[in-house]
Amino acid sequence: MERYSVLFSLYKKENPAYLRLAFESMLKQTARPDEIVVVEDGPLTDELYAVVREYQTNYPELFNVVVSEKNVGLGLALNLGLNACKNELVARMDTDDISKPERCEKQLRRFEEKPELAIVGAWVDEFYDEPTQTVSTRAVPTESDAIYCFAKRRSAFNHPTVMYRKSKVLEVGGYSDLRRNQDVDLFGRMLYSGCKAENIGESLLFFRANADLAKRRRSWENTRSYIETIEKFWKMGYASRWDYLVVAVAQTGMFLMPIKLQHWIYKKFLRAKKKRTA
User: Fold this and answer.
1) Structural domains of the chain ordered from first start
2) What pTM value is reported for the model?
3) What would the pLDDT profile of 77-113 be if each residue is shown by its tens digit?
């Protein structure tokens, strides 16, 4: 199988225990990575430094730490890490999620079967406290044409599940300097440029849907950023004016409604309910 890198971005507010679980989930992949790149986005806490140094010491041939002296935000930090990755295939991973053991092997096989693909993502199982108690699944379109249409209004990928071709990301300029929705912006530009993408139609990652996530969804910064991203798609010819208007109204409405109603809509209409534990 083709070799691949794993790309993390880490900043000071992350949880050291969650980081350890994320690292371990990548070390336990049935197709083990050739490299794990960790970008330290600005100064970290002593606890986070301790976890990173522990894994550097135990796996010196695997862990490559890239240091940014100041916090530059997720998009620019990922660009730093991406440029440091030595492999063409790069698996994104967040510091508070847990990849299932077969995740990367299944993605590598998809790239082997369809070398024309630039992005391969997957569904996620969402949980609050324990990954064994999942509460919902975020299912996204699996076929290339459906993904192309879906991404004009909504995020067509679960960012921490994505494996992509480094060269294709760099061809469109990498991640933009945005504080929110960097992935939506990047993948929209990649799709519009002609990149082919698929999602594997099963959950390959446990996604931590905690209170912090709800706060980010509720923020006006996130709402405005998403609307501006779709407006950008409209102006460059990817999305239509109607796509932009629908997103602007829907996102503003979600922001203005009570948090309990917003949460109910996510559970009722935007997520598949889990009937059993994972």
Assistant:
1) 4-272 (3.90.550.10)
2) 0.90
3) 999 999 999 999 999 999 999 999 999 999 999 999 9
